[in-house]
Amino acid sequence: MTMASEFGNKIYALKTTANKERKVVDDIVKVLEDHDEFVITAIMAPDEVRGYVFIETPDEYARMEQLVRLVPNARAVVRGETDFAEVEHFLEPKPAVSGIEEGTIVELIAGPFKGEKAVVKRVDAGKEEVTLELYESMVPIPITVRGDNVRVIEKAHED
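Structure tokens predicted for Transcription elongation factor Spt5 (159 residues):
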């Protein structure tokens, strides 16, 4: 059973060095500029999947193995094809504040307060922002940051 799309393309998973997925995508694009024998219609490196890049192509598995040899930090092509249903959910962006609610404990991962822990006081899903109060501050001053600038440490407890 083949898993080719209606356009005759297949999706392959490339194993990469962890945390080098974006670099691998950039390097694949550079290889494509220099080598016109590769036909790639889409490249995807979802944040949720560490160590893998997905490639859509009409080319065969052996051609993808040749590509891997030309790309630093690309390790191997996973045997077989990936079904579109397995990667389809990565194509819909999730709001940056999904899973964050009032009372959630977060760590700031960007900005001047990077590394600080805080408690979420308000979530604005429309603007994808959260209002926080820093744990360590003497005076509770609310700060508002983008939802993608925080990492959830502990979910709010339901009482």
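The mean pLDDT is 87.
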